[in-house]
Amino acid sequence: MNFTTNFDIVRQALEDFTTEIYSPNNKVIDQIPLDQLIQKLDLSSWIKEGGLEGQVLKDFLSAFLSYQTRLHHSGYLGHQCAAPHYAAALGGFINNVTNNVPSIYEMGPSSVALEVFLVNWMLEKVGWKPTPLTVHSRMSEENYGGGVLVNGGSIANLTALIMARTQVAPEVWQEGNPDGLSILLPSESHYSLTKAAGILGIGKKAIHFVEVDKRGAVIPDSLPGIFKKVQEKGHFPIALVANACNTPVGIYDPLDEIADFCQEQKLWLHVDGAHGASALLSETHGHKLKGVERADSLVWDAHKLLQVPSLCAALLVKNHKHLDQAMPVGDNASYLFHDKEQPGVDTLHRTIETTKPGLGERLFFVLGAIGEGGMAGFIDRQYQLTLEVYHYLQNLPDFECPAQPESNILCFQYTGATMDSLFLRKKLLETGEFYLTTTLFKGARYLRLVFMSPNTEFGHIVNLVTSIREIATKV
Questions:
Q1: Bridge partners of residue 300, in order along the sequence
Q2: HEC-encoded secondary structure of 299-326
Q3: pTM
Q4: Are 28 and 73 in contact (CB under 8 A)?
Q5: Distance, CA of 429 to chain centre
Q6: What is the pLDDT of residues 440-458, one digit of tens each?
Q7: In CATH, what is the architecture of 92-331+339-366?
Q8: Domain 371-474: which topology?
Q9: E strands present in 202-323
């Protein structure tokens, strides 16, 4: 067997996988116990004997893909993972074959070119000055933005807080954390931020949660009082984090008002826009990030609303020097850092990761296929559908929502019977028709819809309502 033959087998299997979602009998999710699945796939035999090619490869893929969750399915309303555009797979495939690593220019000039171009494109969307393409020194004193693509928003959030800490405690890499470092967070922030506090050695006890309204958005007028209490405890915040949008219900914080406070206190403002920063591409919804250009750093995940497979996240900064000088390079990495002819740029010093795949390939090929307009149209469609579903559910006597959505995330409860949301979700997953999640918000558990698939339409939610009511009648 050769590459072409096996590639065609894989291509056909994936084509079938992404088109079978339109079959009325096809499930979005089909879970069986792990031990049974490993046995069904006969993984032990393949590891021992090899030979996974040709017809046996075809048979294996048929079994393997039959148990994969179908993110393109109309019933996929689960986690904030994209139903990827096929073009992104082409970009990923190209990088998987070439294995060029865009951390250093000489290991992948074209991959680096894509990443630098895309980071600049994102910087311009935020309202920050892009990096001049003729600048190669990371110690440049020019004022312009900067950024890097990393494997996920968690790494990006951690790196942003490393930058913020370095501004407050520049000797931290030699001396360790000084006493009293803390972080200001909205209570509805992503858990990666509290995890980052632990990794940084600041600790969860030094996280101070700022006051939010009934929708989960930061109340700017409460910030001076919270800041004063933090100072009275002998703590000094390295950063205030704002959400654009928050994870539970998809609400945007008032960035402009928060920026006023941070500017007054000379406090680093980091915006976790992992999910909602993509609205910057939309003429209809871009206003929800008003004031983002006043932040110091921003996380923007392409693997959420930009139809890119996991993972591909951008960490962007208003001032490149904060990123370029945040993390010292290793003393024993002389094979990487030395005087050399440099026709491009190295980004290794900007990341926690030393080796990473060509993440720019995934995003660029989608944008290259559908353009900015196509991407904006997709975002507008998902946001509008979510709003329509909200009004539909609110007008039903046996459903209620805790907040009007500002993105493609919508939470709701079924009130027609006394039923736990976790129980309802379990029953829905058992049918395989719908995949949705739940979340705690303001002390109550809600069913949670995230409209990621371009194949989900309003009628599918009507069917979901019918399914929920049928489950209720059987309890």
A1: 314
A2: EEEHHHHCCCCCCCEEEEECCHHHHHCC
A3: 0.95
A4: yes
A5: 24
A6: 999 999 999 999 999 999 9
A7: 3-Layer(aba) Sandwich (3.40)
A8: Aspartate Aminotransferase, domain 1 (3.90.1150)
A9: 207-210, 236-243, 269-272, 297-301, 313-317
